[in-house]
Amino acid sequence: MNARPKKSFGQHFLHDRRYIERIVSVVSPRAEDFMVEIGPGEGALTLPLLTAAGKLTAIELDTDLIPGLQARAASVGELHIIQADVLKVDFSAMAHSHGVPRLRIAGNLPYYISSPILFHCVEHAAAIQDMHFMLQKEVVDRMAAEPGSKVYGRLSVMLQLACRVEPLFNVPPEAFRPPPKVESAVVRLVPLAPHELHDARPEHVYAVVKAAFGQRRKTLANALKQLLDSDAIRRADVDPRARAETLAPADFVRLAKVYGSL
Q1: Three-state DSSP class for 130?
Q2: Would you tell me which CATH number, out of the four given (1.10.8.100, 2.40.40.10, 2.60.40.10, 2.102.10.10), belongs to the domain 202-261?
């Protein structure tokens, strides 16, 4: 019996077999992988992922869905379900406690909380090999946006400073039950290698990016005036008259370093 999707949890259950198979194909789980699924729902992705990997850890908030998941998975493979809010799950500790270098994460993320989940995963990027998520297409567009784009913003910068962002394909509303009012997309995130990461303090980068895009129509001199004056912005080799959406992620790193040196 199918579960009734709960609006309070932002549930839209994927049911179209073509897209399920396509997602599992791009994830390409192997027996040696430590796979983690966020929000398994009714198990549309869980069971084929479990079939390929043999074992899977799933994080599910909705207690009503767990018995059905366990029953469906019983003859497929080893499914471990963590009943929790994913924002409270320590992925670094999970990898350490299971003796694995890095996790592989996948999931159909609830639209209303997708950005917080992405930022949470980025905090644990050193313990993650890759991530494959299905999200609202508009969010994926923002994640992958380049400087100068109308949708380039805080999410673009913060994710691109931590990961390679690769949009893969779109998924139409009718592939879900109930159909959402927006188109979805699947994206791959691969955390950058240690030598590719910036060396600014994360809290300084966060402060500068948040302030810069908090008033995106203003010049940096105005948007950052609580953090950096025009001379300090110039020391980062950035034009104070520029606007946040024209800056590359590396520009924000230089601004963060200057901010940290004050």
Answers
A1: strand
A2: 1.10.8.100
